[in-house]
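Researcher: Checking consistency across runs. Here is Calcium/calmodulin-dependent protein kinase type II alpha chain again:
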Amino acid sequence: MGCTSGIHLPVTTLKGQFEDIYEVGQTLGAGSFGCVFAVTRRDTGRKEQRAVKVMRLADNLGKVKEKCISDNLEQLKCETNIWHSASRHPGCVKLMEMFVGRKYIYAVMEKCGPSLMESVAELSAWSDAKLMKLVRGMLQFASSSNRDIVKLCDFGMAAYVPKDPGFLVGRYGTAPYMSPEMAKATAHSLSTDVWSLAATLYVILFGEFLYMPAEPHNPKAMRACIIHDYPRPKFQRRKDMVGEVVIREAATLTAKLLERCPRARCTATEALKMIPASSEVTGHRQGYEVKAGGTNGPYNSMQRDKSARTVQQVTPTVADVPFWAYSGELTGVA
């Protein structure tokens, strides 16, 4: 598994075998395109832990093996180019080193913490300013569509949107965060990430997925719920989170971004302009009624603060609603 220079990558590839430089630890995760392990460098003696994503160039497919390797290389080059261009940003996992072998590519990155779902309790307690500071950085990547926005540490599904025709086609990403057009596998552009952004913030605020079919871990059932808009989101905390109070502005804006028509959906650039200065954030944590627009009619839901005797009516507009959203997973390993 020694390195070769047969592929041009934007990150410096190192000579020697990966195993000679890094000691491999526990498995952190696995996906359709590779596995992730915890690693530490052997030569420096430092105990700093990193992670490595191991991607197989091709399976043993006989006569079509060479074409499969070529296709995989193109896909990997696209992934590493986007990853490298984004990794300098603090909101993305840093890509540190690349090792290229005959059968595998090793992408060494910084090691992060738990997943979004594992961090819901902590995230729901974040301050207003902390959430807004995070989203301001995440929205900088308006020129590329991630298409798997659950985490900004895995760019395997990422792609640049071409100027002509101006959209991409297909179904990519994690089912609970898919936009309606993505779930249908129809044409999609940057606006699909705005929906996924809102779906991610919904998880942070309410502790469950935007759509909850009878089998929430069944991707096909989840996509069907998204496509048919049924059962509709409740905008209510999980039962075990009922004692927590939701920030009104955050929930209101989440609803505003859940526009089912991609052409009518707010863009990332427009959203950036709506981020207020920290001194302008009210941070109200009280009862409210959420009304989210869409081509199939508004969502109507209600969340009451135990201390509030009345429910405030909220009708958000693009002009007066601050942007409170988060476009990727705070921590996690690809």
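Researcher: Does this match what you'd expect to see?
Model: One thing to look at in this run: The first helix runs from residue 18 to 21.
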